[in-house]
Design a protein that fits this description.
alpha+beta; about 110 residues
């Protein structure tokens, strides 16, 4: 397993570009859950490559935890699996993020 430690905001960022330049490929860029959405997943010489977002350092549950746990257990992750990770949307509130889910008062 190869792990990179950079949040990847573009499919052409350094880490995914390096994987492709080395002969590997990027299967998935981004996952539909926050925190964790800046993750990429691919392979190099038959081994998984995971570009870990900054939230991977957090003890709180995040999207990287879901990908890592499956990968370490040898469970393949399909496009459908990634799509199902979006159920629930935000995993936690981040104090610095505006709260888009606050209901507006009408009247």
């Amino acid at each position: 397993m190869i792990l990179t430690g950079s949040a990847t905001s573009d499919v052409h960022d350094t880490a995914p570009s390096a994987v492709r330049a080395a002969g590997g490929h990027v299967d998935r860029f981004g996952i539909p859950v926050d925190p964790g959405n800046l993750l990429f997943f691919g392979s190099y010489q038959g081994r998984p490559v995971i570009g870990l977002p900054g939230c991977a350092r957090s003890p709180a549950l995040n999207g990287a935890d879901w990908v890592l746990s499956r990968t370490v257990c040898g469970i393949a992750i399909t496009a459908e699996d990634f799509a199902q990770m979006s159920v629930g949307g935000l995993l936690k509130e981040i104090p610095t993020r505006p709260h888009p889910r606050k209901k507006r008062r009408e009247g």
